[in-house]
Amino acid sequence: DLDENYKAQHAVAEGQPAIQSTDAKGESNAAAAKFEAWLDPNGWVQRIVGDGDVTGGEKSSTSTDHFSASRVEFAMAPEHNVLKTMNASGGVNVESNDATGTRAMKTEAMLVKFAPVAPRATKTPASAADGLGGRQHIESAETLAPATIEMKSGDEYTTLQAKQFVTRFNSDGHLDQLLGHSGVQIVRQVGSAAPQTTTSAE
Length: 202
Prior knowledge:
The chain is mainly β. Helix content is about 0%, strand content about 65%. It contains 1 helix and 15 strands. The protein has a 15-stranded antiparallel β-sheet that branches. A hairpin with a 5-residue loop joins strand 4 (about 35-40) and strand 5. The protein starts with 9 loop residues before the first strand and ends with a strand.
């Protein structure tokens, strides 16, 4: 779609479009049945929506991450093609695998906030790759519906359940804090030993 000045303001890609990028840290990808983007008259992206079988992932020399949901909406920082927030809904599944073990989270809705991008040393404009494929790190994430987290490290297996989880990440993008709210249950099992269950309001 074009505005009155014949500038693109809305773009649609259908038929399982896919986005792939590679940088010094590894590879990233995203796909969906349909992607839609809304653009500012000055050319920067305001919002991106992926609808239908949305998947995404990142792979580096030390870890792999995979994400899937029915619908995902990205809000972009004004005047920059970098991510501000991500709202995901419908069968949200996040998986991570590295040398320390595996982690998976399942919920029906989730909000992710991204850390602001550091100012550039030059006046070169930001590109879409800085946000979607440029390894912009997550600042925080919270589930908007009951969720289950499963973690496995060696022969230790832990399952956490709560009506809401809130996570915060450090400047390197690594998990720094995990909070569970309302009806928290933790089940921990080591090897063939009997599972240990702990419950708490918070």
